[in-house]
Amino acid sequence: ERKNGLLGLRIVSFDGENFDHYAVPFEEEIYVASLPWKDQPNSYVGHSFQFTYTSCLVPLKMMEFDVRTKELTVLQQTNGGFDPSEYTMRRVFVPIPEATRVLAPFGTPVSDTIPVTLVYKTDSFKNDGSNKIFMAGYGSYGMPVDGRFEGKIFSLMNRGIVYAVAHVRGGGDLGQAWYETGKLSHKKNAFTDFVACAEFLVQEEKITKHELMALFGNSAGGLLLGAVMNLKPDIACAVVAGVPWLDPLNTSLDASIPMVTLDWEEIGNPNEKEAFDYLQSYSPYENIRENVKYPSVLLTAGLKDSHVPYWEAAKWVAKMRASNTNGGAGDPHQSVIGFKCSMSGGHAGSGGRYGQYRESAEKYAFLIHELEKSEDRQSKPKVWTKVTKVTTTNSTTSSGSTTTQKVRTITEVTYK
């Protein structure tokens, strides 16, 4: 069952006899427990069953639960090569902005708070609001972002970066009603939820500052981040989006592109005026703001991606660069607008045994660099040397040859 944003297990009576239903108890606050297959041998006649268990701090393990004794047994466990006690995993709940609260279909109850999962190395966490943070989100198709184990995030946490996931509406984290209130004519709720989560971590939890925040999303998560940047360009110092859906309006008008008609169930059919106008009002490509400083951005795409064509990211980058939104040439605070397209990659990223590891390393390197650069700017002023004037003089020597001398006048500018 899915309850309070967690995927767990509940024991119920099979034959309808009087029985107190109960959830299988686990020690961790955040976890994912699920049956590895639907029809296990003897699963309906035995007194025990097997399932998989994982969390942000627990690699996948196979477990068994005895319904008679209520005992949990670990059958097989992956060695993570780290000490989970050195890390903290917790959740905070962000109030949904009052103006965006809507009723779910059929009056289904829906939560009035947005869960945010936080994981970090305990001894590097600071209580002064100066933590660097890496926040991810998705918010589409009713797909939940469960707290499963991802070994690669430890390279961030071991550098003192807080890993966060905003479980915004449009995903399935809190059930079908959570999805319904973040799709079609309610799609913007996912974007405002994400902004609310970022603001809450800064203003209420006082974990970080916007200048120390980096954002990450893939596919429809790129739609989320693209729309969020247009809503609040100063929300973060850096953004990385993989195979991002940045031009949903124009792409969804072409029904020959694979899966476009399925996307209509998520964002509406743009051949209908009402859906067209609403989609146009939040499409990241259509709403790039001119002469506004955006975060540094790295987009990655795959030439063979049949889900989100690579040209969506390419045209977004071209328009962003042309809109003078990166601070301008010579600005010491200039944002980077980068784009990388894999010539062999698809929607799942680069192929090969190590392709995705290399991609992750590149993305993390970009985010870490931008976070450290922004953190450095916060801590102390810098001196930017700028060439303001170059003069050239010619002189003739006694031998009759001509020499050229250039004189540079340098101005030093101090900034924070």
UniProtKB/TrEMBL annotation:
Its EC number is 3.4.21.-. InterPro entries: AB_hydrolase_fold, Peptidase_S9_cat, Peptidase_S9A, Serine_Peptidase_S9A. This is Prolyl endopeptidase. It comes from the Eukaryota. Residues 152-372 form the Peptidase S9 prolyl oligopeptidase catalytic domain. Serine peptidase whose precise substrate specificity remains unclear. Does not cleave peptides after a arginine or lysine residue. Regulates trans-Golgi network morphology and sorting by regulating the membrane binding of the AP-1 complex. May play a role in the regulation of synaptic vesicle exocytosis. Pfam families: Peptidase_S9. Transmembrane segments: none annotated. Belongs to the peptidase S9A family. GO terms for molecular function: serine-type endopeptidase activity. Keywords: Hydrolase, Protease, Serine protease. GO terms for biological process: proteolysis. The keyword Electron transport does not apply.
